[in-house]
Amino acid sequence: MYFLVLKRQNENKNISDYLLSQLDNKIIYSRKNIKADVYGSGKKNQNLYFSYCDLYVIPDAIFLITYSKFINKPMQSMPLMITNNSDLYNAFNTNGIVPEIKKINPDSFSNEVYIDYGESTLDSTNITIHLKNLSEQERNYFRF
Questions:
Q1: Of 65, 64, 89, 66, which Cα lies nearest the Cα of 141?
Q2: CA–CA distance from 82 to each of 2, 25, 49 (Å)?
Q3: Cβ contacts of residue 126 below 8 Å, gap of 6+?
Q4: How many CB atoms lie within 10 A of CB 143?
Q5: How close are the terminal C-alpha atoms of the chain, in Å?
Q6: Which residue intervals of the chain are DSSP H helices?
């Protein structure tokens, strides 16, 4: 079991590193260690759950490197790219990292951003992400 988790974590890290190298010259803002709460329903996919993320903003998308901490060591989950221009980023859409977003709410009263995507069925998962303690500037990046 541990081998499978470690293998998946390494695959996710490789995907994240590759995407960051491709987008490096386009990044206009970044912030690390953002606390997140993730809720899911439907088919359980542990690769979609995380408790922290690193935020990278490029002109027409937001890239999240997602992870949880295990003994103070990050264990990466599947990275996510949030954009309204998914056709432009289809080349990066390996393993569904560019989900079809149902709703983004950057106007929460508690300095959070809510992101909702996916379907809750027997063979797919609905995910709701709450990104915590974001500044007004950071929340404005989520207004597409």
A1: 64
A2: 30, 18, 16
A3: 40, 41, 42, 116, 117, 118, 119, 120
A4: 9
A5: 40
A6: 2-23, 136-140
Q: Is 15 helix (H, G, I), strand (E, B) or coil?
A: helix
Structure tokens at 12: 């996710």
Contacts of 116 (CB under 8 A, 6+ apart): 101, 102, 103, 104, 126, 127, 128, 129
- Considering the entire predicted model, what is its pTM? 0.87
Kindly tell me if the per-residue pLDDT of 105 is higher than 60: yes
Torsion of CA 114, 118, 5, 66, to 10 degrees: -30
Q: Which two tokens stand for residue 39?
A: 């809720």
With beta carbons less than 8 A apart as the criterion, state whether 55 and 31 touch. Answer: yes
Please give the single-letter amino acid code of residue 78: M
- Is the model more confident about 56 or about 121? 56
